[in-house]
Amino acid sequence: MNMSGLSFNALPPIDLPFRFFLSAPLFIIVCALLVLFSGEILWFSRWQPNMLALMHGFTLGFLTMVMMGALLQLLPVIGGIGIGKPRFIATTSHALYSAGVITLMLSFVLANNWLTLTALVLLSLGLGIYLGAIIWVLIKKMSQGDSINCFRLAIASLTILLLLGILLLANKVGVTVPFILYDKHLTDIHALMGLVGWAGILIIAVSFQVLPMFHVAPNMPKYIRQYLGVCTFTLLIAYIFYTELALGLLFISQGGFALTLLYVINQRKRKVPDTSIKYWKLSAATLLLLNLLYFLPDSFYSSTHSPLFMALPDKTMLLTAIFIYFYLLSVIQGMLLKILPFLSYTHLQQRCLVDFSAMQFIPHMHEFLNKKHGIVLFYMHIMSGLSLLAVIIMPSLYFIFALFLLLEFVWLFVLMMKCMALYFSVNKKINLSNTA
Amino acid sequence: MSSIPEYMTKKHRECDEFFSEAEAAVADKDWSLALAKWQLFASELTEHLAQEEETLFPQFEQATGMTSGPTQVMRMEHQQMRALVQSLDNALAAKDKDEYLGLSETLMVMMQQHNMKEEMMLYPMMAQHLTDGEQLIEGFKANEAV
Ligand SMILES: [Fe+2]
Ligand SMILES: [Fe+2]
């Protein structure tokens, strides 16, 4: 038996995940400014350069940023072991990656080849270092388990998405690889790998762990835990060759996940009101709505004879926006509301294992993140989400979306800062009591 | 006959159940129901911790020679759990809903993490090293019946 697996304090220092978390809302604040200054034209096509900048601000700047930080922390908690040299890996990958995302956004907006090239180098280095460290752990040391297997698939998707991204960027600056068709299909594969593979499968893996842990919910059914991740990943690969069929099946499997989520949440033992549960329900409902919208006949979209009182906007844009905003962002925010106080508390609590008397200084979890503040975030998220839908239908409303976006993510940033500040002040008290 | 992992894991779930019921009652400000459920939880937990600290941990330490390893960490975490239980007692007595819910979230998360370590690592190791595991559990069950 491997005793080293029992190292209970393999948690990396708290400032490492927190630097990822704290930078994430800043990217959305930049996105809000981009929306504000781009005007209506941004919403006319998903191929608008500024729209590409916006997409990558959301997906890389926020979603991936948070997920990278969370994974640093989740691997030790779930797998019993973290990455080697955590400070070096986290610091360098975070710095390179952040600079890379900003440069990438700028390269889209300014259409400058040198910026594109710089972004390509920074992102490959930043993500490469991070991925290298994680993959090394996942291959060599990690135990088996349904969550861990899903982590592996999510990381595989991230790797594919990165490689495709590099190909696409290289193509922009004039470097083409033979036998590869640079068309919209390649971009779609890249996008789907990111949204459904990397983010989607990671969320599935995380749900297996956090629903039982924070809400005392039953485990997901065994076949879901064993096959949903693999099935999603296989469909993503199948999408390359059988686009329509695979996409339909992907929607259905995500819908199946949504139903399971709702079932498990409903069976949870902890019934105390909770904002993260609201976020999970919103996310599950979103997946079901997406199924409805996807299978709706084309005549509902941009047709003059729409059965509705108005034609729905561009289907891809609408579905992508709903998936990112109401599904991915909702889950991530719901998780952050749990993870921020949880990490702060757990780190301080670990310090008090040796100095039990210092326990008295540690506030309870709601003091790190006030429940009422969490609910405010939830409603702000709904408001800005609705304004996003409005702007897709009526681009002239862009400034309302920009404003709501700004408010929501400044608020999230404030909540994070409050939590961190409390952590450091308590940490100081424990230091003093240790030396006393 | 049940094994150590089976029986002890079942006890974790029972604790969770009483705990969640007490918490839900506090959220509804049903203080008498909350107190009843809380006391059920507290006595279940006390018994469970005692079974670990007085019987299972010492036996495990003897069988493996590891006295400063995982069992020591588990004992320290028990100490912290007891401190939170004490604070929850006070919050319940004062009928302070917000304080109680903040503390209960904290204890819940600490307990889940603690239980996960026991269920995933320590109990299976015990089952492997303690040859008389099932007899020990029968002993616990007999005590319970009294
Ligand atoms: Fe224990
Ligand atoms: Fe236990």
Topology readout:
The complex is a heterodimer of chains A (436) and B (146).
Chain A: H1 15-38, H2 49-79, H3 86-110, H4 113-140, H5 146-172, H6 184-215, H7 222-241, H8 243-266, H9 275-295, H10 315-351, H11 365-368, H12 371-393, H13 398-435
Chain B: H1 4-27, H2 31-64, H3 70-93, H4 97-129, H5 133-145
The structure holds fe (ii) ion (FE2) (2 copies).
Protein name (chain B): Hemerythrin HHE cation binding domain protein
GO cellular component, one term (chain B): plasma membrane
Domain IDEAL (chain B): 73-107
Question: Biggest interface pair, residues each?
Answer: A-B, 30 and 36 residues
Q: Give the overall shape of chain B, derived from the CA principal axes.
A: elongated
Succession of helices and strands of chain B: HHHHH
Q: Which radius of gyration of chain B do the C-alpha atoms yield?
A: 16 Å
Instruction: Assign the CATH superfamily of chain B.
Output: nmb1532 protein domain like
Search tags:
heterodimer, A: 436 residues, mainly alpha, 0% strand, disordered N terminus, B: 146 residues, Four Helix Bundle (Hemerythrin (Met), subunit A), binds fe (ii) ion
Explain this structure:
The complex is a heterodimer of chains A (436) and B (146). Chain A is 77% helix and 0% strand. With 436 residues, chain A is mainly α. Chain A has a domain at 7-143. Chain A is globular and about 75 Å long. Chain B has helices spanning 4-27, 31-64, 70-93, 97-129, 133-145. The longest helix of chain B has 34 residues, at 31-64. The model of chain B has no long low-confidence stretch (mean pLDDT 91). The A-B interface holds A 1, 3, 5-6, 8, 77, 80, 212-214, 216, 269-273, 342, 345-346, 349, 352-354, 356, 359, 364-367, 371 and B 16-17, 20-21, 23-24, 26-27, 69-70, 73, 76-77, 79-80, 83, 87, 98-99, 101-106, 108-110, 112-113, 116-117, 121-122, 125, 128. One fe (ii) ion is lined by residues 52, 74, 78, 114, 118 of chain B.
